[in-house]
């Protein structure tokens, strides 16, 4: 009885073999592991990230600002690299602020959203000149109080919970009853209070959802956001310095998924921005993206420790697992487990010869990184590559679980630009 193959997601384009081995940023997988000191290892290709930012800028209207959502990947060398490529950063904690500060990124480029900001976090943010994206009326009171205590006019924006959601999004974060943002009908009053308080009014932020592969749905959400923000500005009687349109740009992880059509999104947005109502004529629009910018630039490399057969099925046991790549195991917000793109990095050019499960080293049945994959025959010592590991990997996985410890991380392919950081 042979196990039948289950499909995997598409390996992002451009990953090639050299002497049979997967190459990332011009370096072979074994050399990357050797210079990083071992596996498991996340490799982030800075050149790919720069390429994504450039592609996005080319597709979007030229006046649009691009922000990076730190949540997707907060690896410090990657943040430092990003500083030279994006216009701003969006954070959701004081810890992320400290990381950005540690690599020299100025608070003036940072927006801080997220429900449940602590006093200490607000103080640090206001001191640093960060824009607070208010998530509730109480946060407005507290921000005004913090500003008064510090003698600094706080920079304040309102995160709006709009009256629509992003159709087809993997995670919905706007529309309906949400912990995020302030319901649109409460917003005009709060804007007037911000202005009256003497704080610096920075504008609106609308985030409708994450991981959408539907360019039409994203374009529609952006159009609805612009309409919503125009109505709120009119109702409050203010101009809007900045409008953060959110993001939600997904990447294909699974079989049958296709890359987003960013040209289409850009063309529709350009049309909208060319015919803005008077209340938004001076507004600077920005997008905030995490996953789309960095997800495909990351590869998780893990070494095969054992190869075993159980009741006719082959298991490749690797030294990594869900403690580093929770999402690939299907345990990070997915309803059914599907296979991320995966390959034997040390036999990248070889044809598939067998069907095998790739399982992590954790003592739990949840730790399955690849289910019934068609792979070349691999042995202990071979390296397995899990693709799409650049976002929500290392920092979104329970690395303390079972005591194996965190993975190594390295940013490669950027030496010319930032000497001394990363690789
Ligand atoms: C998570 C999040 C992002 C980034 O989402 P991606 O899917 O990684 O692009 C951006 N903005 C806010 C407010 C978020 O919560």
Structural class: alpha/beta
Specify the biggest β-sheet.
8 strands, mixed
* Estimated helix fraction: 25-40%
CATH topology of the largest domain: TIM Barrel
> Gyration radius, to the nearest Å?
23 Å
Q: Which stretches are low in confidence, meaning pLDDT under 50 for 5 or more residues running? A: 417-423
CATH superfamily of the largest domain: Alanine racemase
Structure, described:
GO terms for molecular function: diaminopimelate decarboxylase activity. Residues 48-294 form the Orn/DAP/Arg decarboxylase 2 N-terminal domain. Keywords: Pyridoxal phosphate. By secondary structure, the chain is α/β, with parallel strands linked by helices. The protein folds into 2 domains: 16-44 and 296-412, Beta Barrel (Lyase, Ornithine Decarboxylase, Chain A, domain 1), CATH 2.40.37; 74-289, Alanine racemase (TIM Barrel, Alpha-Beta Barrel). 27% of the residues lie in helices and 25% in strands. It has helices at residues 29-36, 46-59, 76-83, 94-102, 119-128, 137-150, 187-197, 215-236, 262-274, 291-294; strands at 16-18, 21-24, 27-28, 41-45, 65-69, 88-91, 110-112, 131-134, 155-161, 171-172, 182-183, 200-206, 209-210, 242-244, 284-289, 298-310, 313-318, 342-344, 354-359, 368-375, 383-386, 408-412. Strands 4, 16, 17, 18, 19, 20, 21 and 22 form an 8-stranded mixed beta sheet that branches. Strands 5-6-7-8-9-12-14-15 form an 8-stranded parallel barrel, surrounded by 5 helices. Strand 16 and strand 17 form a beta hairpin. It is elongated and about 70 Å long. The model is unreliable at 417-423 (pLDDT under 50). The structure holds pyridoxal-5'-phosphate.
């Amino acid at each position: 009885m042979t196990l039948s193959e289950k499909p995997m997601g598409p390996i992002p384009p451009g990953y090639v073999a050299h002497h049979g081995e997967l190459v990332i940023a011009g370096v072979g997988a074994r050399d990357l592991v050797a210079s990083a000191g071992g596996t498991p290892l996340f490799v982030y290709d800075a050149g790919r990230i720069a390429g994504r930012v450039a592609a996005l800028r080319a597709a979007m209207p030229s006046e649009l600002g691009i922000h990076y959502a730190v949540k997707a990947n907060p690896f410090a060398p990657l943040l430092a690299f990003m500083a030279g490529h994006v216009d701003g950063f969006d954070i959701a904690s004081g810890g992320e602020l400290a990381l950005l500060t540690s690599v020299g990124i100025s608070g003036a480029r940072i927006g801080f959203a997220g429900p449940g900001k602590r006093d200490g976090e607000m103080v640090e943010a206001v001191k640093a000149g960060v824009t607070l994206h208010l998530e509730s009326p109480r946060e407005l009171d507290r921000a005004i109080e913090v500003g008064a205590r510090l003698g600094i006019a706080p920079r304040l924006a309102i995160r709006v919970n709009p009256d629509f959601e992003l159709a087809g999004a993997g995670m919905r974060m706007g529309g309906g009853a949400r912990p995020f943002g302030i319901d649109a009908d409460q917003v005009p009053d709060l804007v007037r209070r911000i202005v009256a308080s003497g704080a610096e009014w920075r504008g609106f932020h609308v985030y409708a959802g994450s991981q959408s592969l539907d360019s039409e749905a994203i374009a529609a959400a952006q159009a609805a956001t612009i309409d919503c923000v125009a109505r709120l500005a009119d109702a409050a009687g203010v101009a809007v310095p900045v409008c953060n349109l959110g993001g939600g740009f997904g990447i294909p992880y699974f079989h049958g998924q296709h890359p987003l059509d960013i040209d289409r999104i850009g063309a529709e947005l350009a049309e909208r921005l060319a015919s803005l109502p008077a209340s938004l004529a001076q507004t600077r629009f920005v997008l905030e993206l995490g996953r789309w910018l960095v997800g495909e630039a990351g590869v998780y490399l893990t070494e095969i420790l054992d190869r075993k057969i159980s009741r006719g099925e082959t298991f490749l046991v690797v030294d990594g697992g869900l403690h580093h790549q929770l999402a690939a195991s299907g345990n990070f917000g997915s309803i059914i487990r599907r296979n991320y793109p995966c390959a034997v990095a040390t036999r990248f050019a070889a044809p598939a010869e067998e069907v095998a499960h790739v399982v992590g080293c954790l003592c739990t049945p949840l730790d399955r990184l690849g289910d019934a994959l068609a792979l070349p025959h691999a042995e202990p010592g071979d390296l397995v590559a899990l693709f799409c590991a650049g976002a929500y990997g290392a920092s979104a996985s329970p690395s303390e679980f079972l005591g194996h410890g965190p993975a190594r991380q390295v940013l490669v392919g950027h030496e010319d630009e930032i000497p001394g950081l990363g690789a």
